[in-house]
Write a structure and sequence with these properties.
alpha+beta; 11 helices; 12% strand
Length: 297
């Protein structure tokens, strides 16, 4: 209830307070409407939403009743701009804005009945709790951390989701690598005392660089034959060998395993240089062709 000089002004509000990362958005904050569309939109006193950001220790506000009246109750989340800060320095302006809304909408309460309105609101709140003791906004502890992460990186995830089909090849390769990892590590441990992380990591890095080169070549509408052959060779040998290995059970198997360990060192080392030279030469050739075309024109 607002007062001025110790006297009630007749301006009464209700406040809905939220706190947590799940209310954060890329461009501000938001409060879910849920089952409260009628409670907030048709309320006889304006309901003000406030979100507390625990990271910045700031409060942000929005007139829930006003927004719901404007949208006709068809909105599921009510946005709060970053500019709507509620602090000591903005409090007077916020109160003035709310008072104007109350006066324009004819929601001002007679001073004599203000206490009655507050009591009615309290009874209505208790009645709604009794009728529906379970809050639809109660968190699910299994998924809340994931929801917090998704809301915190909403822009990035939205960008990735819209372009997921373009990166399906790279994502599939990542899944294959994750599946292969323990088999590759066991393969190295069976034939060498060297650190398996270095050998496997080198193969994985070379494979992913090949995949990235192919991805951007396809994006440029070119067929990456040279890289495609190298990629097929890596996938067809180094990613299958661990399943053919017998764990050093006989001398021939030990020799075979050691050969592939050495090949796994040499191939990426030469491969990086060949790919670099090949695509630099291709880029130079493209620039020369463009220069000749421009000169001809």
């Amino acid at each position: 209830m607002f007062t001025r000089n110790g006297r009630r002004t007749g301006h009464v509000i209700a406040v809905q307070v939220k706190s947590g990362a799940k209310y954060r958005r890329a461009d501000g904050y938001a409060i879910p409407v849920g089952d409260h569309a009628q409670d907030w939109g048709l309320s006889r006193i304006p309901v003000i939403g406030v979100v507390y950001d625990r990271g910045s220790k700031e409060l942000f506000w929005v007139n829930l009743t006003k927004v719901l009246k404007e949208y006709g109750g068809t909105i599921s989340w009510i946005p709060i701009p970053k500019e709507n800060i509620l602090s000591d320095s903005t409090l007077r302006g916020v109160i003035a804005e709310i008072e104007v809304f109350i006066d324009v909408e004819g929601m001002r309460v007679r001073r004599s009945s203000a206490a009655e309105i507050i009591e009615s609101a309290r009874r209505a709140r208790h009645a709604s709790i009794g009728a529906n003791p379970r809050d639809v906004d109660d968190p699910n502890p299994l998924f809340e951390p994931l929801a917090d992460f998704a809301l915190k990186h909403e822009k990035v995830l939205r960008y990735i989701t819209r372009r997921a089909h373009k990166y399906a090849f790279l994502m599939a390769l990542g899944m294959i690598m994750a599946f292969e990892w323990p088999h590759q590590v066991r393969f190295v441990q069976a034939y060498s005392e060297a650190d398996p992380l270095i050998w496997v990591g080198n193969i994985y890095l070379f494979t992913y660089i090949l995949a990235l080169v192919m991805f951007f070549e396809f994006k440029a509408k070119r067929m990456p034959r040279f890289t495609g052959y190298a990629f097929a060779l890596i996938i067809g040998t180094f990613y299958i060998n661990p399943f053919l290995a017998r764990g050093g059970k006989d001398e021939v198997d030990i020799i075979w395993g050691n050969i592939w360990l050495w090949v796994g060192v040499i191939v990426p080392s030469l491969g990086y240089k060949l790919i670099l030279l090949h695509y630099i030469r291709e880029a130079i050739a493209r620039r020369k062709r463009k220069a000749r075309s421009a000169g001809a024109i």
